């Protein structure tokens, strides 16, 4: 037997993306977004309500960063998802985040989040579907593994459970992609 739940946006796992932008005064803002994904080889898509300060900032500067929330930054990452820069100007400072201006796009990189994509706006579909081009990915050296690449075990990224509104730590490696399925070929 299965139980029906109707129309739900329940996808596992949902990311916890932190979107960094600047406003017209060069003030950094950050917001939490679960509705985001890879859209093409070099593109991301975000679904952001048009009234968010972040959405207005992206329209203005045609740029944003996408960082990934981590186990040690749950509290500030949730904070930037429940408070708007429209009302709280010093939201980034109150979160305890510091920023460094990206050298590639007009958007802030959040220093406390070790992995970030720097993106330029390609277009906004409708009012709220942001399509961006990834122009760079940067990682803090502290999260690089022995192969010189970002190591998931050092980043400790979290995921969002949209059914219970929980943040969940990602678990252990359970397989190898493009490989394990060969056993059934
Ligand atoms: C877990 C979580 C996920 C969220 N995902 C989204 C999302 O995908 N799209 C969106 O528009 N808002 C989302 N929000 C709400 C915004 O982060 C929130 O409204 C924020 O205050 C907007 O900030 P801003 O006005 O400073 O840009 C989410 C909030 C939380 C806590």
Describe the protein in words:
By secondary structure, the protein is an alpha+beta fold. The chain has four helices and twelve strands. The longest helix has 9 residues, at 53-61. The chain is globular, with a radius of gyration of 17 Å. It starts with 13 loop residues before the first strand and ends in a 16-residue tail after the last strand. The model has no long low-confidence stretch (mean pLDDT 97). Residues 29, 31-35, 47-49, 52-54, 78, 81-86, 160 line the site of flavin mononucleotide.
- Per DSSP E runs of 2 or more residues, the count of β-strands stands at 12
H/E order of the elements? EEEEEHEHHEEEEHEE
CATH architecture: Roll
Backbone CA Rg: 17 Å
* Hetero groups: flavin mononucleotide
| Name of the top-level CATH class | Mainly Beta
Brief sketch in words of this structure:
With 185 residues, the protein is an alpha+beta fold. It has four helices and twelve strands, in the order E-E-E-E-E-H-E-H-H-E-E-E-E-H-E-E. A hairpin with a 3-residue loop joins strand 9 and strand 10.
């Amino acid at each position: 037997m299965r139980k029906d739940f109707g129309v739900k946006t329940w996808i596992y796992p949902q990311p916890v993306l932190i979107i960094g932008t600047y406003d017209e005064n060069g003030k950094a803002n950050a917001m939490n977004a679960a509705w985001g994904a890879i859209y093409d080889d070099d593109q991301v898509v975000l679904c952001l309500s048009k009234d968010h300060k972040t959405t207005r900032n992206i329209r203005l500067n045609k740029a944003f960063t996408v960082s990934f929330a981590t186990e040690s930054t749950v509290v500030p990452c949730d904070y930037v998802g429940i408070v708007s820069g429209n009302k709280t100007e010093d939201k980034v400072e109150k979160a305890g985040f510091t920023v460094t201006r990206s050298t590639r796009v007009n958007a802030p990189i959040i220093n406390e989040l070790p992995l970030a994509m720097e993106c330029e706006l390609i277009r906004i579909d409708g009012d709220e579907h942001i399509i961006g081009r990834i122009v760079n990915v940067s990682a803090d050296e502290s999260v690089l593994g022995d192969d010189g690449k970002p190591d998931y075990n050092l980043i400790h990224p979290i995921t969002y459970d949209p059914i219970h509104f929980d943040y969940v730590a990602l678990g252990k490696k359970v397989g190898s992609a493009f490989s394990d399925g060969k056993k059934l070929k």
